[in-house]
Amino acid sequence: QVQLVESGGGSVQAGGSLTVSCAASGGTFSRYVVAWFRQAPGKEREFVGSISSASTTSYADSVKGRFAVSRDNARSTVILQMSSLKPEDTAVYYCAAALGPFYGRALSVWSKYDYWGQGTQVTVSS
Predict the structure, then answer these.
(1) Residue 76: partners with Cβ closer than 8 Å, 6 or more residues away
(2) Per-residue pLDDT of the chain (126 residues; tens, 9 = 90+)
(3) Where are the beta strands (DSSP E) in 1-126?
(4) Which among 18, 115, 106, 25 is positioned nearest to 63, based on CA atoms?
(5) Is 92 helix (H, G, I), strand (E, B) or coil?
(6) Whole-angstrom Cα distance, residue 34 to residue 73?
(7) Which of 24, 50, 35, 28 is nearest to 96 (CA)?
(8) Which of 58, 92, 111, 120 has its CA 20 to 30 A from that of 43?
(9) CA–CA separation, 75 vs 25, rounded Å?
């Protein structure tokens, strides 16, 4: 059983940067694919980015070039660095994990992930 806890959300003005973290406990963290999803009020859950056990990353087109996912297996932590933030990035951000490997389109499918954090709010004002 893997437990995930997000931290680091907050409020920022458009164009600013923010970093959110996902700390994992339980399981062999290095074997897991970890992804970030987000959900804005009234909208469906949306894939943001993912990182494999080999640290291969994948991103949604809407955040490509602005967001970066990294992992530190020794600390069982995944980081989402967000820059050039836009008001449309406002959402609750969730990290999710699943035992890998899996690839391609599956990375963006929320139902592939077995473990979820509680979410952290990110608000971008114009």
Answers:
(1) 23, 24, 25, 29
(2) 899 999 999 999 999 999 999 999 988 899 999 999 999 999 999 999 999 999 999 999 999 999 999 999 999 999 999 999 999 999 999 999 999 888 888 899 999 999 999 999 999 999
(3) 3-7, 10-13, 18-25, 32-39, 46-51, 57-59, 67-72, 77-82, 91-99, 115-116, 120-125
(4) 18
(5) strand
(6) 11
(7) 35
(8) 58
(9) 10
Cβ neighbours of residue 41 under 8 Å, at least 6 residues apart? none
Q: Cα separation of 100 and 43, whole Å?
A: 28
**Distance in Å from the first CA to the final CA of the chain:** 40
* CA-angle at 39, arms to 37 and 42, nearest 5°: 155
3-state secondary structure of 84: coil
